[in-house]
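Board notes (copied after class):
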Amino acid sequence: MAWDEGTQEHAGEVADYVRHLVIHLMDNLQRKASAYGGGGDKVAKKNIFLLNNFVYMEHCLGPDGGSLREEVEEEWEEEEEEEEEEEEVSLDQNWFGAMLKQQIFQTKENYLNTYWKPMGELFRREIDLNLLKYQNEKTKLLTLESGRLLKARFGKFNELLEGVHKTHRFVLVFDERSRKELRGRCKEVIGGYMAFFKKYSVFQFSKKNQEEYLRYPPIIADAMIDELFVGRD
């Protein structure tokens, strides 16, 4: 990577040089992430790849950073041996913090919007109870038309949840705090499912397959989310 020596000599602050390195690094990460393409689970892999790297940068290049920050410091110090006072390299500055937090936030949102928002949308609107009619009052079995309203919601949710759980268990989020936070956001996005399940699961909407449609009560759905992002079965 080229660095203009004149800029380096007159930068005034080490952070100017480090900023150049960081922006270049982030550009490289975006190019690598684009190799995953789009569609299917590639969107998950792309955004989790970026999330892992952005969080790593946040850990390493902040004031308490580790090896990556030390490498940057050493590179600068070798070129500035004549400096009387060692300037502290810290990227805990407004521009860096805001940029990195926005990247981390947007990466999570891209993932959630692709896989979890479609699930959450299923429960944004309640089903009008006046539309639920019984075949007869004794059995409390809904009419076919009424039953289809509930089958469609529960069936689609089951399909989407199973698809995500099947593959995203193997997508690894390295940082434990980020992993827990992302799981929490997944639960928030589908938060309406608990109320929906409680309200409508009491209706007999399928004569033969009721239990199949209700196989993922909220407590099971939460447990499935807690199995995500571990990188193994």
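Comment from the instructor: Residues 5-103 form one domain. Confidence is low (pLDDT under 50) at residues 79-92.
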